[in-house]
Amino acid sequence: MRSSWRRSTAQHSRRSAVAVAAALLCVACSSSGDAAGPPGQHGTDGPAASPAAAPTTTGRPTVPPQLRECGRQPAPPPLDQLSWSAPDGFATAGGFTQIAPLEEEYTATYLTPESAGAGVEVLVVVHYPNVPDPLTDECGQVDRKRVDAYLSDWHESAGITTSASDWTEVAGLPAVHEVEHYTGRSFTVDSTIVVGRGELLMVSCQWTDQEDVIRAGCAELLGSMTAR
């Protein structure tokens, strides 16, 4: 599901899920106490010895791993609640679709320059609400290895090569930036993928001829994104 568009129905292939071992980032907030009860006392002059006293436990009980606390950081907002503004010189457009979406279910908004060029120049904001691959750990923290594996699998299935890949932030949220080239196509796509818990928000900026116009609009769009 992805960054480029065409004016006909999207064709794509399904990918096989990639399983990557999760790194547990949760911080244990409790520890087991010491069992420090007194030793049992035994009588010396009766027919039966007194039973040993039951040991007592001090301190807090051990917290099972599945109940460990993950810290006090606030939960990130749902990605569909991020707000943004159309860049100057761009207007909402129809007639586009994703040629290689990341997932089957998505919603997209397309923006084109008011001064159209000869090629297909477009900005798109795509929300994928249901990403089956677990891209975060048990505490909701982004697992970069999982994200890299997920995107690598998508690149391979869609015939995409990338350059300038790195991690960044959008509206204070973790995101991957990459420049994409599609096999057999003349356009270039500059994409930034914001990673949420079970969802993704992708801002893709595609150009054929008007690179300067698209890059400027892309930077303005990303810079306008804020959490509500």
How would you concisely characterize the structure shown here?
The protein contains two helices and eleven strands; from the N terminus they run E-E-E-E-E-E-H-E-E-E-E-H-E. It has helices at 144-158, 211-224, and strands at residues 5-6, 82-83, 90-93, 97-98, 107-113, 122-128, 160-170, 173-182, 188-195, 200-207, 226-227.
Description:
This protein is α+β, with helices and mostly antiparallel strands. It is built from 2 helices and 11 strands, in the order E-E-E-E-E-E-H-E-E-E-E-H-E. The protein has helices at 144-158, 211-224, and strands at 5-6, 82-83, 90-93, 97-98, 107-113, 122-128, 160-170, 173-182, 188-195, 200-207, 226-227. The chain has a 7-stranded antiparallel β-sheet, with helices on both faces. It has a two-stranded antiparallel ribbon with strand order 1-4. Strand 7 (160-170) and strand 8 form a beta hairpin. The longest helix is centred in the middle third of the chain and has 15 residues, at 144-158. It is globular and about 55 Å long. It starts with a strand and ends with a strand. Residues 1-58 and 63-67 have low confidence and may be disordered.
Note poorly predicted spans: 1-58, 63-67
Sheet with most strands: strand arrangement: 3-5-6-10-9-8-7
> Helix fraction?
10-25%
> Count the helices. How many?
2
* Mean pLDDT rating: 77
Main sheet specs: 7 strands, antiparallel
Termini separation: 26 Å
What would you call the structural class? alpha+beta
Q: Tell me the total number of β-strands.
A: 11
Shape: globular
Query: Rg to the nearest angstrom?
Result: 27 Å
Give the percentage of residues in beta strands: 25-35%
Topology as a string of helices (H) and strands (E): EEEEEEHEEEEHE
